[in-house]
Amino acid sequence: MWRRSLGRERMYRRERSIPLRGSAAALSNNLSVLQLPASDLMHFGVVHGPSAQILSSAPGGMPLAQRQLQVKVGVGVSPPLITQVHWCVLPFRVLLVLTSHRRIQMYESDGSLMVYWHALDSGDASSAQTLFARGIAASVHFICVGTWSGRILVFDIPAKGTNIVLNEELAGHQTPITDIATERAQGQDGVADMVTADDSGVLCVWRSGTVFTLLTRIPGFGVPCPSVQLWQGMVAAGYGNGQVRLYDATTGALHVQISAHARTICALDLAPEVGKLLSAAEDTFVHIWKLSRNPESGSIEVEHCHGECVSDTQLCGARFCDPSGCSFAVTGYDLAEILRFSSV
Amino acid sequence: MSVRTLPLLFLNLGGEMLYVLDQRLRAQNIPGDKARKVLNDIISTMFNRKFMEELFKPQELYSKKALRTVYDRLAHASIMRLNQASMDKLYDLMTMAFKYQVLLCPRPKDVLLVTFNHLDSIKGFIQDSPTILHQVDETFRQLTEIYGNLSAGEFQMIRQTLLIFFQDLHIRVSTFLKDKVQNSNGRFVLPVSGPVPWGTEVPGVIRIFNDKGEEVKKTGFKHGGNYVAAQKEGAFELYGDRVLKLGTNMYSANRPVETHMSATSKNLASKTQENIAPNPLAKEELNFLARLMGGMEIKKTSGPEPGFRLNLFTTDEEEEHAALSRPEELSYEVINIQATQDQQRNEELARIMGEFEITEQPEITEQSTSKGDDLLAMMDRL
C-alpha cells in the first residue's frame, strides 16, 4: 500500500474491514454512509446486484446488524438490478432510497419498512433503452431522483408518514442521470443548491424552493460524469477520463482541472467542515484534495493531501465517514468487504 | 443494464471457446481435416444469419446457466463430443478469459477492439471457406453499425453490465497464474503502470484557469502510479492494427491449460440465492433460449463421418475426477432432460435441443410466431 504524507497533513492508516454478505457491483457511487451523531453508530449501504445490503457498525468496525433489500416486481420474475442506495437526510427524518431498473423505493432509515415506491414511466422509450433510476439526493424537504431519460423526479416528503408525492419533473438533461449533489444555500433558510450530472458529462446547477430553477448549465466534452459534489458555491465533477474538474457554481466557469486518475472516476465525496474532497477511481487509487477559495480573487484553489492504492481493486464507491474527513471507507468490484481508513 | 451487451458477450466468449478447442484439437492430435471441419462447423453455426439476427436484438443478459446452454449446443454443432466435465472446464476458461479482458480494457469502448481481435482470429481459422468468411465480415459490419456510434456513457454501461455478469467468478487458470496476471486468490492483477487509455492524460497535473478561461498556473502532484502517455489508438475498421492485445489467442499447443476449482465460500450466499429458485431457469430465460437456439441451424451429420470425443483434460481419469470433485456452488446445472418429469415439456425442450424429431402434436394447430411462445403456452397448460 503506497502512502505519502505531506508535512503537517495527516496520514491515513488502514482500519479493520467490515465484511459484506455479497460483493459490491461495478457501479458508480456504490457506497452510502449515514453518520448518526447522536449515537456512535454508522450505517453503510452497498449494492450487490439484484440486492443491496444495509448494515450498521460500531466505531471499531464491528458489524452489528445487517439487512438485504430487493425490489420485488412480481411473482416468478427475477428482481431487477439495483443501481444505487443512498440515505437522504431531511429536516425531520432520514429516508433510505433505493433506485433500480423500473422502480424507486423509499424506506425508513434502517431499511425495515418501505414507505413509498414509484414505478418508472416508459414514456417514449425505444426498445433499445432500459428504464432505470440513478442519482439520489435530499434538497430541503424534497428528494430528487434521476432517471434514464435525463429527467429528474422531485418528490415532496412530509415530516412523517407515507404521503409522499411526486411534485415536479425537471428537464435539463438528454442522457441518463449519473449523480446528484445538494448543499444548503449560504445564508438562506429553506433553500438549497443542487447539481445534477449525466452520461454525456453535462452538469446542471439548480436552486430549489417550492419550484426548482435552473441556474447554470455546464456543457460536457464527450465523456461521462459519474460523480459530482457541491461545496460553498464550487462544483466538483469526476469524469470518465480520470479528470476532476472544479467549476464555479454561479458562473459555470472552469477554475481547476486535475488529471487525477488513469481510469474513470467512480465516486467523489466531500467533508464539508474542512472542504476536503475524496476521489476514487477504477485505477485502484483514492486521492484526497483540499479545496479553498482565494479570498482576494475568489478563484478556486486545490491542494493534493493524500493518495492511497488499493491493490488490484477496481473501486466503485468511496465516502468520508465524518464531516471533517478524518476517516473514509471504500468499496471495490468483486470485493465482499468495506475497507476503512482513518487518520493517525 | 444495457440491452446491447449480449452480442459482445456471445462473440467474445465464442472466440475464447474456439481458441481453447483449437489448442485441444492439436494437443490431442486430431487429424487436420477433422479439426478443420469441427472449427468450420462451429464457426458457421455461430455466424449463421438467423442466429445473428436474434442475437443483435436489444435484450437483457440472462444468467450464466442460460448462456452456457447455448455454448453446449454450439460445441456440439459438429462431429465432436464433450463430456460434461470438459464442457464445464471449457466454459470456465472462456468466462475467466473474457472477464479478464473486460476488466483490463483501458476504455470501455475498447471492448469493441477486443471483439474485433477475436473476429480477426476466427477469420484465420476459416481462411479456406469464403462463404463463412463472408458471414463473419457481415457480422463485423453489423457490429460497426450498432456500436460504431455509441457514446462513452453507453459503453460504460455495457462494461458495467458485463462486470455484473462476471461478478464473483474467481476460478484460477494456470496460464493466468503463470503469467502473473491472476493472483493465487483468483483475483486479477490490475497494473498501475503502462500507457493510459487513449483520451486520458497521465495523472499528476493540476491546471488553474482564470475567469477568462486562460490557464494561469500548472502544478504537479505525486499520483503513485507509473503511467505513460498512450501511443496510438486501435483501429475500428475491418482491417487494421488493433494495438490492444486483449482478445488475441493466448494459447499454444504446448501450454496445457488447467483450472483450479477454488470454492469462494465468502460469496456462497449470493450463489445459493441463484440456485434456490424452483425452476432451473426462469420462464423468461427459457423463452430467450428457445428464441436464440431456434435460429441455430445445426447441420445434421449425415454420412459415415465418425464422431470423436474431445477431452479438455490430459487424461480420461483426470476428466472423471474433475466431474466428481467439482464444488457444488460452481455447478452450472445444465438442463438435463428428465425422462420421469413432464413428458410434453421435455419433448418440446428436446426438440429445441435438436436431439430428436418431434411428431405432430394435435394440440398445436397453427405455427406460433416463436418457439418461446410454444413453450410458454405448453407450460401454461400444465
Automatic annotation (TrEMBL), chain A:
The residues bearing each WD repeat, given as ranges, are 258-299
Localisation per UniProt entry: Cell membrane; Cytoplasm; Vesicle
Matching InterPro entries: WD40/YVTN_repeat-like_dom_sf, WD40_repeat_dom_sf, WD40_rpt, WDR54_beta_prop
Instruction: Enumerate the UniProt keywords alphabetically.
Output: Cell membrane, Cytoplasm, Fertilization, Membrane, Repeat, Ubl conjugation, WD repeat
Cite the WD repeat-containing protein 54 beta-propeller domain residue spans from the record. Answer: 11-344
Annotated Gene Ontology cellular component terms: cytoplasm; plasma membrane; vesicle
Task: Tell me if Magnesium is a UniProt keyword of this record.
Answer: no
One Pfam entry name: WDR54
From the UniProt record, give one GO term of the biological process aspect. Answer: single fertilization
Has UniProt tagged this entry with the keyword Membrane? Answer: yes
Reported function: Plays a role in the adhesion and fusion of the sperm-oocyte membrane through its interactions with IZUMO1 and IZUMO1R/JUNO. When cross-linked to form dimers and trimers, it has a regulatory effect on ERK signaling pathway activity in response to EGF stimulation. Colocalizes with the EGF receptor in WDR54-specific vesicle where it sustains the internalization and controls the degradation of the EGF receptor after EGF stimulation.
Q: How does it assemble?
A: Homodimer and homotrimer; forms tight forms of dimers and trimers. Interacts with IZUMO1 and IZUMO1R/JUNO.
State the protein's name.
WD repeat-containing protein 54 isoform X2
Q: Which gene is the coding source of this polypeptide chain?
A: Wdr54
UniProtKB/TrEMBL annotation, chain B:
Gene Ontology molecular-function annotations:
transmembrane transporter activity
What stretch or stretches form a coiled coil here?
none
The record, for Pfam families, names:
Oscp1
Q: Which InterPro entries match?
A: OSCP1 (IPR019332)
GO BP annotation list: xenobiotic detoxification by transmembrane export across the plasma membrane
GO cellular component terms, alphabetically, are:
basal plasma membrane; cytoplasm
Name this polypeptide is given = Organic solute carrier partner 1
Q: Which organism is it from?
A: Cricetulus griseus (Chinese hamster)
